[in-house]
């Protein structure tokens, strides 16, 4: 884990169906890792998928040499308890004394891995397993094991998303891509000047911030290393370590950076009065701890440490730019900040058209579809709903553009009711905080 050649070699071996050709193998249940070893026999329910562990398996290297592959547990099986994954090492023994054979194999495995992912985008996620391993390190006297929970653990691949499918003002879309390309084309210059490429995206949820990063990754053929500061397993130390473990030429996506700061959710939408806002913020700072174990100084250190030297692009996203400390978003630290707004009338019309392409192809009267799209866009108030919300509604009317238009009014009413209920809940929470604050003030007066 955290070793990129591992993924390349595993992909190479899978491609060669190494595991299928082995004659001797053991079978364990996938969730055996989360149970004491003796309970493996009592496998219950269809969710227990067996994972074969084959040994020894053999494969041919790219230059025709034989190699044997052995998979071995890193720790004894009794340690595989309560959510700990069964850490395994993969040993590939190449039957040649020529080191070049090994270098060729790794190069070939890398190329195949990259080619296989050409139509996909790979996203690397972090593992949050962390409590038991420090003691495990002590048990095994393995200093490394004490920190071995902090790694890039899983990868998921997603189909590439074309930038054209993003519904954003076209100048913004083009500017975003040109900006990323410019960085990669001028790597040398960035290296010489030491200027890093860090970009911030902010705006309401569901407006396309993450989707843009995915589209750019596909367009530039880069893998994404994704960290959410809302993840409770991430603190300053793990953040620094994870970022230190990212490879050259990748996209580092740090989501929810506002989580490193006290929450100001309560005053986002409906506090017009600046004084009132400040007062609520003061109270929110007192009452609401940050949602993340990452501190501002930890985050700044980490951002400053991501240099431009190796073609890394850093994107940070937040739903609450007002919560961020000015130090974090000052020029030089976050050079370009792009706002993602709620859907405009033009965007709503575009979503509608994108949503019913099959109908458009069959429809003899495509003009009718265009009219539906325009009428739908006119019926939805501009800059009030996110594209994700509108897509959510259109999903309920798949293949039925006329129905989508007819149902728009009822959907709006339902949305407004939902909004009102949320507002009520917010106000109730504020009243509770205010009551609590009054209690604290009174107690302070009595005892001081
Ligand atoms: N501008 C857009 N163009 C196309 N699709 C969009 C757009 N905005 C949102 N979507 C769709 O809405 C869903 C959520 O989008 P996405 O995750 O990019 O939003 P986000 O702004 O990153 O949200 P969050 O702040 O909650 O992470 C996705 O399915 C995406 O396809």
UniProtKB/TrEMBL annotation:
It catalyses: ATP + H2O = ADP + phosphate + H(+). GO terms for cellular component: mitochondrial inner membrane. SUPFAM superfamilies: P-loop containing nucleoside triphosphate hydrolases (SSF52540). It is found in: Mitochondrion inner membrane. GO terms for molecular function: ATP binding; ATP hydrolysis activity. Its main location: mitochondrion. It is a single-pass membrane protein. Coiled coil: none annotated. Residues 198-344 form the AAA+ ATPase domain. Keywords: ATP-binding, Hydrolase, Membrane, Mitochondrion, Mitochondrion inner membrane, Nucleotide-binding, Transmembrane, Transmembrane helix. It holds the Pfam family AAA_lid_BCS1. Belongs to the AAA ATPase family. BCS1 subfamily. This is P-loop containing nucleoside triphosphate hydrolase protein.
